Amino acid sequence: MQIHTTVAPFDVAAAEWFPAATGFTVTVIVHPVDAQTGVPRYLPPAEPAEWARAIFSTVNSAHGYFLGAVDPGTGGHRRGQLVYRLYVDTDRRAIPVPRQVVTCPHYLLSAIDGRAEITIPTTA
Predict the structure, then answer these.
(1) How far apart are the two ends of the chain, measured CA to CA in Å?
(2) 111: pLDDT confidence band, cut at 50, 70 and 90?
(3) Judging by DSSP bridges, how do beta strands 94-95 and 2-12 pair with one another?
(4) pTM: predicted TM-score of the whole model, two decimal places
(5) What is the pLDDT at residue 23?
């Protein structure tokens, strides 16, 4: 797997029914690829989700979101990647996704496999 992480600030004005919000978006993009050929390969979302949970665990993985195979920049489908997001306020506390920044479907990360805890099996 190839894993890319980015952190970007957001500052959104209040909208009807939604308060203003300021903070940071932590985005984790996982590219499951075949080690020999480099060609994208299928993985159930739960396996890459464990890596996203591990990255988010220093804040609170329970508020993480799964965006599927959506390019977070364009909102379009991108084959061969899985995207996970976490939103934190200026005090680095995990918060629910501010609706004003939703440009594609967001699914709670804990709903992928019904587990909120982090478990990464190792063979070492």
Answers:
(1) 18
(2) low
(3) unpaired
(4) 0.78
(5) 94
Residues 39-66: tens digit of each pLDDT: 887 777 777 788 788 888 877 656 788 8
Q: How many residues are listed for the chain in this entry?
A: 124
Please tell me the distance from the alpha carbon of residue 26 to that of residue 29, in angstroms, as a whole number. 10
Residue type, 93: R
CB 104 within 8 A of CB 82: no
Q: Which residues contact 119 (CB under 8 A, 6 or more apart)?
A: 50
Give the DSSP letter string of the chain: -EEEEEEEEEEE--BTTB--EEEEEEEEEEE-B-TTT--B----THHHHHHHHHHHTTT-GGG-EEEESB-TTT-SB-TT-EEEEEEEETTS-EEPPPGGG--S--EEGGGTTS--S-------
Burial 26-62 (b: 16+ CB within 10 A, else e): bbbbbbbbeeeeeeeeeeebeebbbbbbebbeebebe
